[in-house]
């Protein structure tokens, strides 16, 4: 597993902007949709939200992810990205965000990805997430698959 640091950071930094753009481009190529319309940077100002950046030992930004409140008990995970696939960075970002969710008092985390994004589906299943009925704006959308993990 890659030795890294992960910390909450402002979403408007050059590193964050670049990571989010890379993720949008990768998602566009896999799914035909960047997913950017499902994420509002301004939501990261909420006191129970967190945008995190993973950095290498040298300080280079290598991944990111976010949580935001969906309701009082549930956080929604968004924009999880690691530059190096299969490096363990993605799992470390998810674990960091889950710990933040617990700190913020959330009992569970939910998220959505596209069915066609087989790597993401497999990744979340490996990290303890279970498929749930599609929620919110994803309800009734066959291209979407939603997940949940109980934290408490």
Question: What is the topological layout?
Answer:
Elements: E1 4-8, H1 14-31, E2 50-56, E3 61-69, E4 74-82, H2 89-103, E5 108-114, H3 118-126, E6 130-132, E7 144-150
Parallel strand pairs: 4-5
Antiparallel strand pairs: 1-2, 2-3, 3-4, 5-7, 6-7
Description:
This protein has 152 residues and is of the alpha+beta class. The chain has a single domain, classed as Aminopeptidase, CATH 3.40.630. It contains 3 helices and 7 strands. Strands 1-2-3-4-5-7-6 form a 7-stranded mixed β-sheet, sandwiched between helices. Strand 2 and strand 3 form a beta hairpin. It is globular and about 45 Å long. The mean pLDDT is 94.
Question: How far from one another are the termini?
Answer: 26 Å
What do we call the CATH topology? Aminopeptidase
**How many helix segments?**
3
Q: Going by CATH, what is the homologous superfamily? A: Gcn5-related N-acetyltransferase (GNAT)
Secondary structure class reads: alpha+beta
Q: What portion of residues belong to β-strands? A: 25-35%
State the strand order across the main sheet: 1-2-3-4-5-7-6
The second-level CATH architecture is 3-Layer(aba) Sandwich
How would you spell out the order of helices and strands? EHEEEHEHEE
- E-strand count: 7
Arithmetic mean of pLDDT:
94
